[in-house]
Amino acid sequence: MKRFLSGDEAFAEGVRLARPQVISAYPITPQTVVVERLSEMVEDGSLAAEYVHVESEHSALACAIGASATGARTFTATSSQGLLYMAECLTYASGGRFPIVMMNANRATALPWNIYGDQRDSLALLDHGWIQVYAEDNQEALDLALMAYAVAENPAVATPVMVNLDGFALTHTYETVDVPEPEEADAFLPPYRPAGNRFDFEHPVNIGFSAGPEYNRHFKYWEHRDMLDAPVVVERVEQRFAEVLERRYPGMIETLNCDDADVILVTLGSAAGLVRSVVRQLRDQGVRAGMLRIRYLRPMPSALIAEALRGAKAVGVLEKDVSFGAEGTVFTNVNSALQQAAVGVPTYNFVGGLGGDDISEAQVRGMYAMLAQAAEGTGELPRVSFLGIDSPADCHPERSAQRGAEGSRAESAEALSERGR
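RE: above sequence
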């Protein structure tokens, strides 16, 4: 059924179709609409679940861990400071191998206080043992709600999944979304059948235990090993999803025109839509441009990224994040992937969208223009630059013209204000 839904509403529909048995909820902008819609579904009977309105984000994940330990399919959601407040519990969930699915509405972190979208919240927590996947649009958000459970609950993975949606850019933007019928969703995602990792009075197991130096390393190794097995499961899950629901997804990464590209921009989340549009325009103009979208950042698809970028002359990484005093976190991960594969392509980091700042088409075109100059050796490009502050991409002729138009509008507004006084 076609419906006009925001990203939050689309994800809530996906959760409804996944039939979680326990939902632990604490509202925080821009995630709130998800748990509001789920509460309405539980109230009207369209979703049979225990809905627990807890007192904090920390309690929301603690509740989800407890519910998952009983063998229930569980869901929770958060954003920004709420996700950071959950940080202590994240490793309990991943180390306990509880297949929880959590939606995170990507949002800037304080201070300064800001409710708009960037990706510093989730990227700051990459090392906490959760599979992390980033949606590009609202349809993918709904579909990931279903596929995340299929991946997390697979016995070969048994790892919680964090599905990330860009705050406001997706969560509060409306698009036409195809919502599957419940029978279709049920055919894809059967009821959860926990394999041993739950409270069982007939067959007792130890859950949430301590492990000293002699044994701890084995548990951490197994956690790492099973995370590395996730890509195979992701591929199978997406193949099954295509068979049942007739929508296909490209796996851990998506590439566009990378095979013969001289310049490639790597990104993740909703920014990929804009980059894709610019790549097509540039291709029409004879520019050999490409795009690589990282869908799953954990586990890190290093080999796939390195292979896709191997033939490029220059690579840029566009991300809504910075690791202060270093560089963008995605940039670090991409460079690691290239180093592991001995791929010597030059790379450049474009940091933008912080605190919800707009990334314009002109800026993306500017990035490709600067990468082309770097590839040809005709221009100097700093290794890390901030869009709107010190990035050469802002000096591209199209961007300069746009800034001039914005300045003219600002001057007109000031003139009107003066006349009003």
